[in-house]
Write a structure and sequence with these properties.
By secondary structure, the protein is of the alpha+beta class. The chain contains 15 helices and 20 strands. Helix 8 runs antiparallel to helix 10 and helix 14 packs antiparallel against helix 15. The longest helix is centred in the first third of the chain and has 20 residues.
């Protein structure tokens, strides 16, 4: 596969900045306030260089005479950007999104069809035997302190995330790549080759991994990267927005990069973008409706109508990559038989649950594959639909009948079909799932006992292989575009933390291995359909729903595109309606 070189972007005709030795210069037009510099030696060294870079970039690239340029957009969300812009240690969704689309650059990104396309790499070459991938980098990308982005940065980043001392949160992404310095080859200043074994969706990790500056972090021991001030006090990126300041648990401030490559869109329209931490959803809604923020990320379903009813706001609604499920512990007698687990699925009205809990803002889940994903083909999947009569018959077949007339089924030994379903304290949606299940399954003779547990205790109960202290647990799981259920359902992983169900199915084992090596998507689609049907038959989880991701957006913010790829996908193209500034 050979990706074509990007063509010129949405704005043409402005001179690219050539960055050599930088000196601090005053900006043309209104001069911004000098950025604050934390009292940390690293920050005191790097941020003045960033200030100089931005000043020179503004002179070399004046703001075009276009009314869309200018203004500040504010996004509010409930949580901090954990680990900030340090792509080597961060797994937080919002932080990773800022690394991808705001402050850093990834080698590739995805188009609307989830097909890879160039970004920092202007061309990608894949070996015929799929054992290496070569990235040809753009030569017009500079770190925000003026240093050019080169193959050294890509090689450094790769070595860091594949080094176990770094404790990269998603280390399993790199299992099929040659680790460390042996896995990366610098061909020239702007060409780097990564070595690997053939496997499915091998470009996907390079979509989400922000490249880091070797000249700033190359001497930092990997085990010290997580605490390094680069992440949250003075990150230096190479993306469309330059870090300006951060106040912990309050806000992040970014400003437009005047020298962002023209072929990628050039300078963002916004002068500034601010991420505000607002811990209460009620406050977030109020801030949006009073136009104190332009974007509310993470709208609750019961708030959606207020946004729809307001003349100055819009609701963005797209399927998320998270599914909510009840994980069954098949080690328990009551849940060991797949027929019982299938009967429970038949006795649960998931459509009603989506309507009741999500006000319809969600899609019933039948497997771990999101409905929007290329691997999902509804016409080839044998789904389990709500059918309490069939559920009762299946329980009878499995030997569970109500022998004493108390409304709860028992087996031949008199063991009741009574199961506890745990959920974490403070999560109302998961509590609602457990309680609705309790009501619905009582109709088919299954007793469900909802049990609330503090989060840390719950994780210990389910993740500790020697413990597995649960019958069922309501949880959520976020899938990557590169789907991989190995840690969840392969029998080789049964003693690993995420093998909650404890099911062992040879067909699932075989298909997961084959899926891991299916390089061709057409072949993979066949395997995914087969895998999902086996998974539905086995029912290690009762898959409930993929909730929609709801975003409130002020009508004054234009050019907003959000979908499964991210909330911040088009941040560099956002602009404020000039009449509303």
């Amino acid at each position: 596969m050979d990706m074509k070189t990007l063509t010129e972007g949405r704005r043409m005709g402005r001179q690219l900045l050539f960055v050599g030795a930088l000196t601090a210069m005053a900006a043309c037009g209104s001069e911004p306030v000098q950025r604050p510099i934390p009292g940390v030696a690293f920050c005191q060294e790097v941020l003045p260089a960033v200030e100089a870079y931005v000043a020179q970039a503004r002179q070399a690239n004046p703001v075009p005479d276009d009314p869309r340029y200018g203004g500040t957009a504010v996004l509010g969300s409930i949580g901090e950007l954990a680990d900030g812009m340090n792509a080597a240690v961060s797994s937080d969704y919002s932080a990773t999104q800022h690394q991808q689309f705001v402050n850093l650059m990834t080698l590739i990104d995805y188009d609307e069809n989830l097909e890879p396309r160039p970004y920092l790499a202007e061309r990608v070459e894949i070996a015929e035997d799929n054992t290496s991938v070569t990235f040809h980098l753009r030569q017009d990308v500079f770190w925000h302190d003026g240093e050019q982005t080169t193959a050294d940065d890509v090689a450094f980043t790769y070595e860091v995330v594949t080094n176990p001392l770094t404790a990269f949160p998603n280390a399993a992404y790199w299992d099929r790549y040659v680790q460390g310095s042996e896995g990366v080859e610098i061909i020239d200043d702007f060409t780097v080759r990564i070595h690997m074994e053939p496997h499915a969706e091998f470009l996907d990790p390079f979509r989400s991994l922000g490249i880091l500056p070797e000249h700033l972090l190359g001497d930092v021991p990997p085990q010290e990267l997580k605490q390094h001030p680069f992440g949250t006090q003075c990150p230096v990126g190479n993306g469309p927005f330059v870090f300006y300041s951060h106040s912990a648990q309050d806000r992040w401030v970014f400003e437009a990069n005047p020298a962002f490559p023209e072929a990628l869109g050039g300078r963002p329209f916004l002068d500034r973008y601010i991420y505000r931490v607002i811990p209460e959803q009620t406050t977030l809604l109020t801030e949006l409706l009073t136009q104190n923020i332009d974007v509310y990320s993470g709208v609750a379903p019961d708030q959606a109508q207020r946004i729809l009813d307001d003349a100055n706001t819009e609701l963005v609604d797209f399927p998320s990559r998270q599914y909510v499920f009840v994980g069954w512990n098949a080690r328990r007698l009551q849940l060991a038989d797949p027929r019982v687990r299938r009967a429970i699925a038949m006795g649960t009205d998931r459509e009603r649950i989506v309507e009741a809990i999500l006000q319809g803002y969600g899609t019933v889940a039948h497997s771990s594959v999101p409905p929007f994903h290329w691997a999902f083909d509804e016409g080839r999947i044998e789904t389990i639909e709500y059918d309490p009569e069939e559920a009762a018959a299946l329980l009878e077949e499995a030997g569970w009948t109500d022998r004493d007339g108390d409304g709860v089924r028992e087996n031949a030994e008199g063991v009741s079909l009574s199961i506890s379903v745990k959920y974490n304290q403070g999560n109302q949606q998961r509590q609602d799932v457990a309680e609705i299940m309790q009501s619905q399954l009582a109709d088919i003779g299954v007793e469900v006992q909802p049990q609330v547990v503090e989060w840390a205790t719950l994780l210990q109960d389910i993740n500790t292989p020697e413990l597995r202290n649960f019958d069922g647990v309501v949880m959520g799981w976020v899938v990557e575009f590169k789907l991989d259920d190995m840690d969840l359902f392969h029998s080789d992983r049964i003693d690993q933390p995420f093998a909650w169900s404890g099911t062992e199915n040879p067909a699932i084992d075989r298909l997961l291995v084959e899926l891991g090596t299916a390089v061709d998507r057409n072949m993979a689609r066949e395997l995914w359909a087969e895998y999902q049907n086996v998974l539905i038959e086995e029912q290690p989880y009762l898959f409930f729903y993929f909730p929609s991701r709801l975003i409130g957006v002020s009508s004054r913010l234009e050019n907003v595109t959000m979908d499964q790829r991210g909330v911040w996908l088009s941040a560099r193209d956002w602009y404020i309606d000039p009449a509303s500034r």
